[in-house]
Design goal:
5-stranded parallel beta sheet, 5 strands, 36% helix
């Protein structure tokens, strides 16, 4: 038997899909499997009559982690104020974290202010859920208080940081009741 030699022709790999896109798809599948295993609804499993939560979350992702656990469709506001903000054409509940200095300056994130400066977004707002840090004492979750008062909608719930499993359970139950009574068009 003779020794096999490699061809001197250049080997070309077959065309591949974009690896970034492939990684995103794989990550999506993994997250859906995890959500299913933990009993969470996925966006694709929720119908049009499911509650809709619009939210802002910073890089820390605390609000995002909470909203992902809800039995609700969701829309995340852009991280940067220079990015285009969505316009809502259906009722929604806003979930807003509190930021700023303890004395109260800048508590409502500018991304939320930009979003609510759109008249249609204010018109579709039905209620507010707030997050914050109890270290701020009486200013805990004050951004939600401010938005609820300025937009004349009810403050539905406040939770700390990422919320607890009990918070998620209470919000899911309360949000479903609130949505059925106030948001579904019959």
């Amino acid at each position: 038997m003779g020794i096999r030699s490699w061809s001197k022709e250049k080997y070309e790999h077959p065309p591949r899909a974009n690896p970034t896109h492939e990684n995103a798809e794989i990550q999506k599948i993994i997250l859906q499997a995890r959500d299913a295993a933990e009993g969470r609804a996925t966006q694709s499993s929720l119908g049009k009559d499911s509650p809709l939560v619009v939210y802002f979350s910073s890089i820390s992702g605390n609000t995002h982690k909470f909203v992902e656990k809800l039995q609700a469709r969701n829309v995340r506001l852009p991280l940067r104020t220079k990015d285009e903000t969505p316009v809502m054409h259906e009722p929604y509940v806003l979930c807003v974290p509190t930021y700023g200095k303890p004395e109260g300056a800048g508590n409502v994130p500018p991304q939320v202010v930009k979003f609510l400066n759109n008249e249609e977004n204010r018109r579709q707002l039905r209620g507010v859920i707030g997050s914050g840090n109890t270290n701020f004492g009486s200013l805990f979750g004050i951004a939600a208080d401010i938005v609820a008062k300025k937009c004349d909608v009810p403050l539905l719930f406040k939770f700390e940081l990422m919320g607890t499993p009990s918070d998620v359970e209470k919000v899911n139950k309360g949000l479903e009741e609130f949505w059925t009574q106030n948001c579904l068009q019959r």
